[in-house]
Write a structure and sequence with these properties.
Blueprint: E1 3-9, H1 16-24, E2 31-38, H2 44-52, E3 58-63, H3 68-78, E4 83-86, H4 97-107, E5 113-114, E6 118-121, E7 127-131, H5 142-148, E8 156-158, H6 161-165
Parallel strand pairs: 1-2, 1-4, 2-3
Antiparallel strand pairs: 4-8, 5-8, 6-7
């Protein structure tokens, strides 16, 4: 099973190296990282190129600034993995993130979307759990889904589903909800 991680990046020089490092640290190694440079004006692209020289699983594409949804759509369209996740350039992954998804997909096959727990971590060190046990009911209501947006946080989506449902809408700011 191969995973595609799509990383939209716009002026991400301060955070992108640490984000890429968490991908390189994965215990599961059958992945590709697709970085879509969305018209960055800082050194984002230089940083990415330094990683590409070290690992052939990383690819980069550049486009004029068109927004996160457009970058996501382009990156997903380039994915070759069985499952695709959107991985912003300021996020981190735990080392066993892909291993856990692989295991869950094998144990519970047949779904188009799998999601995971996640936390927001603030600069002052404060952390807040976003989703996880006890935060959503067994059959979540529409209101619960809107409140937590569990499908955006590290969700693995079977390749092809994005196209099937009409991609991310470019005119929306809150593309996570698409």
């Amino acid at each position: 099973m191969k995973f595609s991680l799509v990383m939209p990046a716009y002026n991400s020089a301060k955070t992108i190296a640490e984000s890429i490092d968490t991908v390189l640290a994965q215990t599961y190694e059958n992945w590709e990282l697709i970085i879509v440079n969305d018209g960055s004006q800082d050194s984002t692209l230089d940083i990415v190129h330094s990683y590409i020289q070290r690992d052939s699983r990383i690819r980069v594409f550049s486009q004029e600034n068109a927004g996160t949804a457009a970058a996501n759509n382009f990156g997903v369209s380039q994915a070759v993995g069985d499952f695709v996740t959107i991985f912003p350039s300021d996020d981190w992954l735990l080392q066993n993130y892909l291993d856990i998804f692989k295991e869950q997909i094998e144990v519970h096959p047949g779904f188009d979307i799998y999601t995971a727990n996640g936390w927001f971590k603030y600069e002052d060190g404060y952390e807040i759990k976003i989703i996880g046990e006890g935060l959503l009911s067994e059959e979540p209501t529409y209101l619960e889904l809107i409140k937590t947006c569990p499908c955006s946080l590290g969700a693995m989506v079977r390749r092809g589903v994005h196209a099937e449902v009409g991609w991310y809408r470019k005119e929306r700011y809150t593309e996570d909800y698409d």
